[in-house]
Amino acid sequence: MGFGAHDWTAHHASHRPAALALSCAEDGRALTWGELDDRVGRVAQVLADLGVGRGDRIALVAENDPRVFEVQFAAMRLGALFVPLNWRLTVHEMAEICHDAEPAAIVHDDAWAQAAGEIAEKVEITRRLAWGAALPAGATDYEAALAAAGYHGPRAGIELDHPTHVLYTSGTTGKPKGALSTHSTLLWQAFNTAQTTGYSQPGCHHLNPMPLFHAGGLHVMANPILYFGGAVTTMTRFTPDAVLARLAGSSPPITHFAAIPLMYQAVAAQPGFADADLSHARHFIIAGAIATPELLQLWADRGVALQPQYGGTEMGPMATALDNEATSLAKAKQGSTGRRARHTDVRLVDPDGNDVPDGETGEIWLRGPSITVGYWRKDRADYFTGDWFRTGDAARRDADGFYYLAGRTKDMYKSGGENVYPAEVENVLSLHPAVADVAVVGIPDARWGEVGAAVVVPAPGAELTLDHLNEFASGRLARFKMPKKLVLVDALPRNVTGKVNRAELAATHGAPNREGTA
């Protein structure tokens, strides 16, 4: 017998109607839980009147805004699936995603009206709902429709295993796939993060500049905090001075924040960082890349212990995390992303599917109720072995149960018959004082089959050679892991979540350059 999924906004509207739920950093709009539930009910009614029902998909392309959450919760209330589109993609790529998802309607703002119109034409989506100053022809006005709509209450018969989201992966390693979330996976992600990141505590307020088309924006902090009745303030884009001002001066104060290392570095570089009041910070997650010890210490000196986590769209998204125990800063400086989430099982396996001992590197396999149930219209067996989701990521585990990422198994290269994981090399090279940013890729080599190329953004004014790097890494890395080529660049190519585009690096820097080889 299945259990019904409870409606978040209706629940909190009845228990804390006057408490803050959502706000917008740009224009100061704010919604209490009572107001949010009323708007969610009206959005649900508008969508229902457009013919959207249980099992249908609702595509959305928009900047960060509280209305993104309204559409998400309205879809969940109707039993429809929310499909936010990555606006960093081309219109053609977004249309390809919609060809796969076959949405019954598309919702958008005025910033993306032209793109939404082109997508609708390409995919033959006839139902459009839009907000903003310029309403395109053929679209229903979001705010006007809400004002005229009745209230659609919570729907009975929606069970915990019913899907809620189709979140398409970034596609940097292949064609995007739609990872499925359900009411159950969202609930268990909230339970996992309540243990490590305090979302169930009263007064949680999350500042979110991360894009809401991605699990990093939706599921890492925002949805778990909303599940427990906290508040989320959206920011249209990440701007370091504006983020610092909000972190230090919001009312109610910001308690939770999540960003990639480059963003934390940019905030810390602002003139007011040294004097900003960050005393209210509870949990500031750092993910997407391994943070340098210097960056971790810089924030620790301001009283904020950044919390490394590991996960991904399909993984809850949080699978491992460092909590606030006494050893956390030391472990974080060593590159650890913490121990497993309470309700997630982790295995590290060799290519034959056998568990590797502590200290050895293996592929991460995950099992648990927060893990995706599969991909939209994909065969589950292609990505799971029994109940275990094969992540494609590699890591090692120490004797205390702390995990250390070694990169993607697809990024692994063989040098002289030995496996080399780029992230492991990057973690060492990033400690060099002349290295501001670094990525390692495997490139062909006539003698060794493959060798590592270190693509480095040097620190301002620093001089760096391959010999400098390898002398520094000596004793920290086996000789076969040391890079045989150095490329100096102004910046590394990254996607919207901060992940390095290694395919682009390998294609661009695969030929010898002025630094030569060792």
From TrEMBL:
Keyword hit for Plastid: no
Organism in which the protein naturally occurs: Pseudonocardia aurantiaca
Record keywords: Ligase
Upper taxonomic lineage: Bacteria, Bacillati, Actinomycetota, Actinomycetes, Pseudonocardiales
Domain AMP-dependent synthetase/ligase: 11-376
Domain AMP-binding enzyme C-terminal span(s) in chain numbering: 424-499
One family name in Pfam for this protein: AMP-binding_C
InterPro entries for this protein: AMP-bd_C, AMP-bd_C_sf, AMP-binding_CS, AMP-dep_synth/lig_dom, ANL_N_sf
Name by which UniProt lists this protein: AMP-binding protein
Family: Belongs to the ATP-dependent AMP-binding enzyme family.
